[in-house]
Structures are given as C-alpha cells and as structure tokens.
C-alpha cells in the first residue's frame, strides 16, 4: 500500500450511501479542510456476503446495495475522496480488516453514522473499544432518526411504548431540532488527494441496474421532489388505494441511505408551510409515516430483544402458532384463494415491493387467518423486499400480529374481501396481478363463487374467514386464560 499524502480521516459508510446530508462525511471533510497539514480523507465500505445471508437479505436488495455503492464511489471521486470497497464475510472480519487498514495508514480519526440493530451496535462497540486503546478518535453521528433514540422518554423516564404520546413528544422536540440538511461537502484540493495502491480484498463495483428501482442519490432527490409536488397533497386520500401510484415509494431510498429522514422531513415541511403537523392533510399524513419509522427505531434501542426474534409482548410467545407448511407456501406463492392477499403477494414477488395497506392485510392474514408465526412472514418479506428495513419490517409484522408495541388489538382481524371492496372497488389492482379474474365483473373479482373460480382457474379459499376469525380469537383468549391461571 502506497500513500503520498497523510490520511488522517476515514469515513466508514454503511446504510448511508450518499454525499448530501451525511453527518459523518461532512465532519471528516470539514476537519480535513481545516487541518494545518495537507490531510486527506478516505472512505470505506464493506461488502459482507455471509452477514447479509445471516440477516436474511434477498439477492435483489443486495444488488441494489452494490449498485448504490458503485454510484457512491463516483460521487465521492468528484469530491477527491477514494472509496475502498472491501469484502469481509462477517462483521467480525470487517473489524479485523478495519484495524489493519487504520494501522497501516496511520489514520487518526474514524467517522461513521450509527446503526441501531443489535449486531451492528455490538460491532461498533467492539470497534470503539479497540480504537480507544490505540488512541484513535471515533466520531459517531445519528442520521437514521431526526431525534436520536434514547432522547425521548415518558414522564416516568421510561421509553415510549405507544405511538401517539411518542409522536407528541417527537413533534415537540423536532421543533427545536436542526431540520435543514447538510450540503454536499466541497471537494478537497487536488494536492491533498491520496494515491493508494491496494489490491487485496478490493471488490469490483460494476453496476447492474434494476429495471424497476433507482439506486443513485440524484434519482432519489428527483423522486422526493416529484412526490411532494404531485401526490403529496392528496396522500391522505389516496395512500390506501393500491391501484394508484399515490405513495412515495421512497422507502427504498431510505433503506439504502440514498436519502436521509431529515431530507424528507425538511422537504415536506417546506411544502407544508414550514410545519411538521397542522398543515396540509396530505403532507401531515406522510410526515406521520416518517414518524412511525422513527418510533420503530427508538423501540429497537430501548428493547434489544426485538432484534433477537422475540415478541415485544412477552406473553404472546405462548401463542399456539400452527405448523402448517402447505398453508404457508400457499400464502408465499399467492395461492390463498383471497384475491387481495394473492395479488399483494404476487406484487411482492414480481417487483420486490408491496403497497403498505397490503402489507397489513397480508401480514394479518398469515398471523390471524392462518395462525402462522409472524416471524416466518417477517423473514419472507425481508428476503423479498427491496426496501427491507429491519425496524420497520419487524414493527409492521408485530403490529399486525398483535404481539408488538402499540399493536392492533388481537380481536381486530381484517376481512380481506371487505378490504378489497373498500380499497380496490373496481378490482383494477387485482387484475393487474391476477389477470385470470379480468373476465369477471368488477364486483365479483373480490370473492368469486365456486363456479367462477373454476371458470377462471382461480383456487378455492384455503380457509373460511368466519372459521379463521374464531380460531384466532380463541387462540388469544386461551392465552389470556392461561395468564390468569398463572397469576
């Protein structure tokens, strides 16, 4: 390894693959520019195949990550910063490589943006301990939440477990928070740019674009602006209609770190007369969804067991989940005989994304109609979603299964047929993914009778709604009886 200029600052990228509003990058670039010596900045990203596999990520999401890293490398190059992309199968291996790199280059400062999951937090604690022992400064920042996890608490000092009071406290704190995003840093002078020769461990960053999803920062900014200009004001009215292109679909950009939540909140508030609440109903509604995203991240930090396949409500661990492989596979494949559930699953399989209303319908069907453990559904979504995000995915599944913080009451069980009639009245979304139903009148697409199913080649329902509802209610009621007896 050869270096013509001293590298004093290393930026360790993770799920923050952007140059705008990136606190870790901004800090390192500013520090390097203010240094008396001709210091340069180096950036680093680890490709961790085995860790991704252990975390259950699917190949489509992994490809988007790799594409985003490729695009980030080009953006950083324009700033005079080289991005090293190294392969380290696990977090443990990445720490070993990081220690070696920092030692060889005599790097004195390492900056990164926090990740909140248990494995990631443990990795960062191990790194910080080693860095302290070797007199290396570690600079950590929050970029996944406007208000850092742990900074909000109830009057008794405990973490919030219910969303509404969390939102009230979050809004009060957000009014005084720094909402203006950080700009892209100025490029470093040419003479300070390092010249490295490094071969071992480097990963090719060639890009293989996904036909449906963007993976670069500029496109994410354009998508945010387009949404706010066009659909944002009607979001509250149209967000539950899956046939319409009415949602932002920016969850993909947020999951990759192409956009920060602060950028989204700032842009929305600017369109909303400077308000995060109490402005236009559509924009208020979208900002509320971003706040739910923060709530789930705060829960991860306050209750680490959520990262360990545990239910938030410990008593629900005793629920008598069914071991019904055929039913689970029918749900996975979109063959349940309930058109809205099946169309939702096929949307996921085809595009790597599912409409948010349908995520709730599908999750509740698996956990309440089929009485199958929410963890199986959570893993399936995580494997197929291009916006796979542990906090939001776990939070959504536990909400639907009535096992989570502020989850839906156990006796609230969506009827997929009435959900379909209400939110896709003409069956337009249904026939997009179930073309065999197109021959039926719109009103019949939601619940075809036996003859219509035979004529269309559409399967019979794998469970009766009334029967499934009673079975689920009995399962939860028996759990309560058992708790009473134990007490």
Keywords for this entry:
single chain; 487 residues; alpha/beta; 49% helix
Structural class: alpha/beta
Q: Secondary-structure element sequence?
A: EHEHHEHEHEHHHHHHHHHHHHHHH
Instruction: Please tell me how large the radius of gyration is.
Output: 24 Å
| Main sheet strand line-up | 3-2-1-4-5
**Beta-strand content:** 5-15%
- End-to-end Cα distance: 66 Å
How many DSSP H or I helices?
20
Give unreliable regions as ranges.
Answer: none
Largest sheet: 5 strands, parallel
How many DSSP-defined strands? 5
Task: Give the proportion of residues in helices.
Answer: 40-55%
Apparent shape: globular
Q: Mean of the pLDDT scores?
A: 93
Structure description:
- With 487 residues, this protein is of the alpha/beta class.
- Helix 4 runs parallel beside helix 5 (118-133) and helix 7 (217-230) packs parallel to helix 10.
- 49% of the residues lie in helices and 6% in strands.
- It has a five-stranded parallel β-sheet, sandwiched between helices.
- The chain is globular, with a radius of gyration of 24 Å.
- The longest helix has 22 residues, at 281-302.
